[in-house]
UniProtKB/TrEMBL annotation:
GO terms for cellular component: plasma membrane. One of its GO terms (biological process) is protein transport. The chain crosses the membrane at residues 12-33, 78-102, 123-150, 195-219, 240-261. It holds the Pfam family BPD_transp_1. The lineage of its organism: Bacteria, Pseudomonadati, Pseudomonadota, Alphaproteobacteria, Hyphomicrobiales. Residues 74-262 form the ABC transmembrane type-1 domain. This is Peptide ABC transporter permease. It is a multi-pass membrane protein. InterPro entries: BP-dependent_transpt_permease, MetI-like, MetI-like_sf. The keyword Transmembrane applies. Signal peptide: none annotated. Keywords: Cell membrane, Membrane, Peptide transport, Protein transport, Transmembrane, Transmembrane helix, Transport. PROSITE patterns: ABC_TM1.
Amino acid sequence: MSRLQRLLGTWEGMAGFAILVILLLFGLLAPVISPGDPLRIAGRALLAPFTDPAFPFGTDRLGRDVLAGLLYGARTSLAVGLAAAFSAMVFGVCVGMAAGFSGGFVDEALMRVVDAFQIVPSFLLALAFVSTIGVSTPIVVFAIALGAWADPARLTRAQVLAIREQDYVASARVIGMHPAEIAFREILPNALPPVLALSATIVAGAILTEAALSFLGLGNPNIATWGSMIAEGRSVLRSAAYLSVLPGAALAVTVLGVHLFSEGLGKALGDDGGRAA
C-alpha cells in the first residue's frame, strides 16, 4: 500500500486533503471566478451578503468584492505558507544533517545557534524582522522561515544521531563509501519521514503568522490577504461583522485542514515506519 493510500485511508488525512485541494482550486481559479484586481472598487460600499448576485459575499467599506478578496487571499496564504515552510525545512534539514553527522564541535556550535532561535518566539522574530527591513512578500516569507527552521533542524539531528549508529551505515563505511554519499543516500532518506510530518505544522504556523502580520499592517499592502481583511472589518464589526467573520472562518478552515492533513500524514508515515522495522 502506497503512502498516499495510507494517508487517504485515515479520516484525518482524507478530510485535510479534501480541504486543502478545495482551497488550492479556489486559489488557482481566482482569476477565472473573479477576474480583475481584487482591491478595486467594484460596487456600492457595505453591501450585505446574498443581497446582490454580483457580490455573493457582499462588499467592504470601500466597495471591494469580499468574495474576490477571499479567493485571492487563499492564494496569498497558501503561497506564503508553502514557501516559508519549504525554506524553513530545507535550511533546517541541512543544519540538522550537518550537526548530527559531523558531531563534536560542529554539532555543539550549530545546536547553540538553534537554541538561540528557539528561545525567541517565532512571531516576535518575524515581527521584528519585517518592522526593521520593510514590507514585501519575499521579506515576509523569509521572516517566517527565520523563526521556523529550528524545529526541523533539531528533529533532523535527533534522527541522524540514531540512524548513523545502524548496522547498514557501519557497513557503508566499511566498504569505503564517501561520507557525503553515506549522508545523502543512506541516512537522509530514512531521517526525512518524521521531519516531513512536521512540515504541515510549519505551514499552518506560517499561514497564521502571515495573517497576523497583515492584520497589524505589516503585510504586503498591494495584495489581498485574509489578515488585512479581518483588520479592515474591525471598525464596522457591529454593523458589518461579515467583513471579519468570513476571512476569519476561511483562515480557521485552512489551518484546520493543514492540521488534519498533518495528523493523517503522521499516521501514514508511522505505519510505514512500523512496516519498515
